[in-house]
Amino acid sequence: MLKRPVRPVITAALLFCFALLLYRLSCGTRTRTRSERPAGEDAHEALLQQHERQYLLYTANLTKQIWQLKKDLKQRSVIFPPDPEERSRSELEEFMRNQLRRAEVGSGEQLQNEFAVLPFDSFTLRRVYQLETGLTGHPVETPLRRDRRNELNGALEAALHLLNQPQAGDSQNRRTYSPQHFYEGIFRTERDKGTLYDLAFRENSVPDFRRLVFFRPFAPLMKVKEEFMDTSQILINIIVPLAGRVDAFRQFMHRFSEVCIGQDGRTHLTVVFFGSEKMDEVKGILDVISRRMKYRNVTLIRLNEAFSRARGLDVGAHAWKRSNVLLFFCDVNVHFTADFLNSCRMNAQPGGFDASVKGSASEDVRLYRKFLRSSLLVVRAPSRGLFHVWHQTLCHAHLSTETFKLCLQSKALNEASHSQLGLMNFHQQINNHLLKYNQS
């Protein structure tokens, strides 16, 4: 049984009015030619006129109902606006589609040179091969970082779900893909658009591949937190362990007087000096700065023992007996600006410190690892207002094996660049080549 389609009330009313207009024109024509028709049709004409009045009354009633419906609809649109959830979902979907259109997925953008190319990283089930090596300096990342592992596993699971989804016309012998069939993949992130994943699958001993491309668009920004931070009353206690190094300390105090005393004005300096040699020179430098700058927020502590950075920082921290203070563990070769001090005030959190490490070069690493194992949010980012002034690195024989190794690594990084170290290592081969070239 066929069903007639349901039409809107307004459309039906308009069609009815159009038909009625044609009917009235037809009736008017018949009225004008009434004298020409036989007399037996007068009764039929009267009946038609009666029906016409009924239809006109019905039409007027429909017109009134249509007007009332329009009025009610307008009122309802004011009282019940569109669902914000539906509107937000629609806007978000349109934003995602726009991100896909803007990204380099189907075609590339014209670039000025090779330095503007955004590289891809390639990956297998257990490794990521990268051009930007990061902290490790290795081109292969294994084991994978947890967030990286979850990200790539999500793309892999989405691909397997689509590959194994039943399709019309599939036979009983259709292929079933598993993670073992994953051949290789590449991915990269455009930080203003999203991440592109290109994955290839292959069955064993089968020459054909299945390739899937996914794009994870970045959503609009969401406000997570808004707070007001008053740092005007936060005092920073700068603790500097020192052993000898008078020239370096003199340069440090020159910068300290400019930044901490002249610009910031909310600091305290604690110097923990190891040994007795050159102690008078250090004290004299502090006295000159105090008199010239009228600065009294200085504490000088002497320890008659072997130098230990961690020990010095611990003693300097416990020497503070006044109200709450922010501790800045500093090296005598570090140069900082007033903006950096404000960054410390905004981002610091209370913690502890390992004082068992003797010597140098590893206590900061242990502190860093301690924070990583805590519930604190560790932000690793470059600071534009913090610099380490170059100085010769001495790795003493009394250091532990781990600390001595870290000291040598630090020395290698500070002494020369990678290429310069390579030239130093291969200098004999270079000299032999030059000698051979000159003889020829």
TrEMBL record:
The keyword ATP-binding does not apply. It comes from Anabarilius grahami. Keywords: Golgi apparatus, Membrane, Signal-anchor, Transferase, Transmembrane, Transmembrane helix. It is a single-pass type II membrane protein. GO terms for cellular component: Golgi cisterna membrane. It is found in: Golgi apparatus, Golgi stack membrane. Belongs to the chondroitin N-acetylgalactosaminyltransferase family. Its main location: Golgi. Gene3D superfamilies: Spore Coat Polysaccharide Biosynthesis Protein SpsA, Chain A. Pfam families: CHGN. The keyword Transmembrane helix applies. Its EC number is 2.4.1.-. One of its GO terms (molecular function) is glucuronosyl-N-acetylgalactosaminyl-proteoglycan 4-beta-N-acetylgalactosaminyltransferase activity. It comes from the Eukaryota. This is Hexosyltransferase. It is an enzyme of class 2 (transferase).
